[in-house]
Amino acid sequence: MPDLLNPADPGFARDPYPYYARLRARGPAARVQLANGTHAWLVTGYEQARAVLADARFSNVPPAAAGRPKPDSPAQRARGCLARHMLNSDAPDHVRLRRLTTAAFTPRRVDALRPRIERLADGLVAELSGRLEREGTADLVDAFAFPLPVLVIGEVLGVPEADRADLREWTYRVGSPADALAQGAVDEAWTRLHAYFTTLIGNKRRAPGDDLFSALVHDASEGGLDDGELLAMAFLLLFAGYETTMNLLASASLLLLTHAGEAAAALRGGDAYWDAVTEETLRHASPLEGTTWRRTTERVDLGGGTVIPAEDSVLVVLAAANRDPGHFPSPDDFRPARYLTGAGRPAPHLAFGHGPHFCLGSRLARLEAAVALPRLFGALPGMGLAADPAGLPYRPGLLVRGPRRLPVR
Ligand code: HEM
Prior knowledge:
Elements: E1 3-5, H1 10-14, H2 17-25, E2 30-34, E3 39-43, H3 46-53, E4 58-59, H4 74-82, H5 93-104, H6 107-111, H7 114-135, E5 138-139, H8 140-145, H9 147-157, H10 164-174, H11 183-206, H12 212-223, H13 227-258, H14 260-269, H15 271-284, E6 294-296, E7 300-303, E8 306-308, E9 313-316, H16 318-321, H17 362-379, E10 407-408
Parallel strand pairs: 1-2, 3-9
Antiparallel strand pairs: 2-3, 4-6, 5-10, 6-9, 7-8
Helix pairs in contact: 4-11, 5-12, 7-9, 7-17, 9-13, 10-11, 11-13, 13-15, 13-17, 14-15, 15-17
The structure holds protoporphyrin IX containing FE.
């Protein structure tokens, strides 16, 4: 009998690790039944996760008729169009799309965002501190972990500030599990995102800014991308770029607030310790719980008696691979020191994925954390949690993971 898995269950969303540990003990991949009745294979071990992510027999292209057939509608068409991005493609399409984006995302361009990120973070910390003085409490997700990456991705895409709250709401909805929200709300979000990006691209063509997306729109015309591909690219950058980073900042803050000794050590230890906090948070609380879905193009024998038939769905659970005790001693402990130079070489975590789809934004995400965390904790050293950490609500689903609210005082 396959294990039953309900990604919308609040208890599972908060602490999925014991479940994943059980699956890992069963072999290289475990077949589970999802709450919607479909079946999938979950890969939870570190070595197997790396192997699957580097293996071309696991395709990123979603099957043509994924899920139940849905009637044609504007939302369905918008969804189909926005989903044509590089994370949903295999070579050679993937190579073509990725090359163009890599060219726009140069380390120089990313690093040039630092002063802007510093200003944004300083502004948010000042607002937060004012609110704590006036009101006594605030939600750190709403006041800091969410707005910073949204403002940064707004910089990357050249999106006006007034539109950023809408983008957050639509992105949240399209990333939620199918049964967690009313279908009308999800459909509306797809349609609005599609319309928004269509207008944005038109605006960039007419009046390019100095943002990274304007460069991409320009290069895309030269590099043979059609409008649909560009539209999907904008969607991917938004989707991949902010919710992940928001969860990194929220989870790092929660871990520091519940590990006072680590917060003090980081404040004493300077940049190297903050970097170690970021790496350990990426490992311990992987913001992307699973990668995007893969599908076997042929029968794959993973060894140990595990054979996945052709055309089956496979999910590599990064959060689980990053807690594999075979690679990380005491994996459930939060110990930034394992990432300090001189502490031996820990296995590289898989929070940014592995193989051809390795995260294109890892440098930007690390930069945001390096700027944000020391500012937040440096300015508010007395900040404490205003809720029981064991009862905090988590984002449902298998894709992104992080606390939805983080009340502080
Ligand atoms: C803490 C923050 C982040 C985490 C944990 C993260 C994680 C990941 C992971 C695991 C993948 C691979 C998914 C798969 O194989 O299915 C990925 C891909 C990607 N990420 Fe990130 N990401 C983060 C931030 C960002 C940012 C800030 C951007 C850009 C603004 C970004 C852009 C992308 C893109 C474009 C891809 C697709 C690459 C491809 O298909 O070749 N990510 N990310």
